[in-house]
């Protein structure tokens, strides 16, 4: 197509808020970054795939019709079910896995364990505001169908190699385990209150701990002791004694091995936490063979990563010279 | 992310009709093709860009609110204007151009002439049906802001080089000019009827000629003579004499130079057609320096390519061993 003259301007050439154009300079810079990341992911054996920009709304939102996920819904009179744009790549990945079970007879379908990567835009139907995007690229690397902690160690190695390939030098991969956090809830004896379940209070405990970088230890202690504002408020409302236990948990210092040993003492007899500690020990033990230098990985008992999602190891990555960006590479294990 | 067990299946893992998953085999085959095409486009100096998957509906549909374009509209309470998904890359390109005029003071904006390429999905909100996709990739290469026929010749060279790089051997790039088709309308003396404009009848004439590959010369002749079914029917309703003129026009044979010379005779004194013939002569003369072998390019006075869009040279490309695919690489010049 060759355009000689500008279109007679009947419509203002506006772009909706939160969406970007990539002109050649930005496009090529981004392409270089995408290619670097994809190369590392592929060198670890992650297969590239693509799922569509449109899915059934019910696939994306599941049973809930919650708008908390800010889903862009699509008007279509041609479909039996409402359509929507994916807010992440994980849900379409789960749909793809479920739709293509491995068939040993004709060897069709997806054979587990399966490593897949995806690079592509995701969409958030939220209110446009400065500094937030409603379309942005996510890079995913996932392993489906394995119990081995080798998989989690591999993800740590993947993070280390990807950031190194991008020329990032000062970063720290922090690891924890939701099982240990659940063990902490047992340790401080969180119990179901009249109108709030033990699980909801535990989630709130995790959410508060996760904020240690932002509000500091004293901020956390104050939040943990705050009285519930209503019968439905999941505030942990910890006793002084329980807060001391949380402090001693968060105060665990030393090398990764020392931290894990100290945690064993703290959680002695609490089965779920002991399981979590063993899982972390395994991950740490796999890192040297994977040539991940010890100084890039730190057991950090404060991190929780999101609320409902994860059930095992969780990890996040911070830039040591730019902590304000928060975690730039995170994930965890989901057992459903 | 590591998934140990399948998600407890509460939602069927269905994909909406007309959308595809690309599993690794398909993804890598497609990636190879995309990379080949992009490399050729870039070697011609086309800058890669990307526009978002979401635009204002008014940008995409223009003044008209026609649903003929099958636009996927997006439900959003957060925007002042309705949003929608682009059905091609051309309209967002026009929006981008209009929004970034060149400013000679600070040298910001887009300096014309500008070559841009884009590879990405477009969306058609049509009824799902076999063999049609509602999301598919389009590869665009465009030059904005030049009057030179060198640009059109370059697009022909681009088509030749791209298909050659993809390993396609038997193809034909057919070129025509809308100015010659408008000249034909003058030649057969198409005039405004009571309820239908000359322009609408001319468009209908072009639409019929474009079908010669499908319905043959006799089919075309019969359509051209058909009586209008209502006052609003733009049927050309040509006389026997006019049909003879169309036949002699479509019967023009020989080498490209011979065809152009014969057309000069046919259209002697019809200024618009003479202009179109000169434009085609220029394009043909530029092809040898661009190293496009003559046998891959054919002047074809039947092709029209779409209805309203183009105003100058138009082109399409057919696979000689698989004509059933229709045109696999087409375009034209738009002056607005």
UniProtKB/TrEMBL annotation, chains A, B:
Cite the binding residues for L-histidine: 88-90, 124, 138, 142, 305, 309-310
* Start and end residues of each Aminoacyl-transfer RNA synthetases class-II family profile domain: 30-303
Q: Name one GO molecular function term.
A: ligase activity
Which Pfam families does the record cross-reference, listed alphabetically?
Answer: tRNA-synt_His
InterPro entries membership = aa-tRNA-synth_II, aa-tRNA-synth_II/BPL/LPL, HisRS-like_core, HisRS/HisZ
Keyword Disulfide bond included in the entry's annotation: no
**Domain of life of the organism in this record?**
Bacteria
Q: Which CDD domains match?
A: HisRS-like_core (cd00773)
Q: Which PROSITE patterns match?
A: AA_TRNA_LIGASE_II
In terms of PANTHER family, this protein maps to: HISTIDINE--TRNA LIGASE (PTHR11476:SF7), HISTIDYL-TRNA SYNTHETASE (PTHR11476)
Record-given protein name: Histidine-tRNA ligase
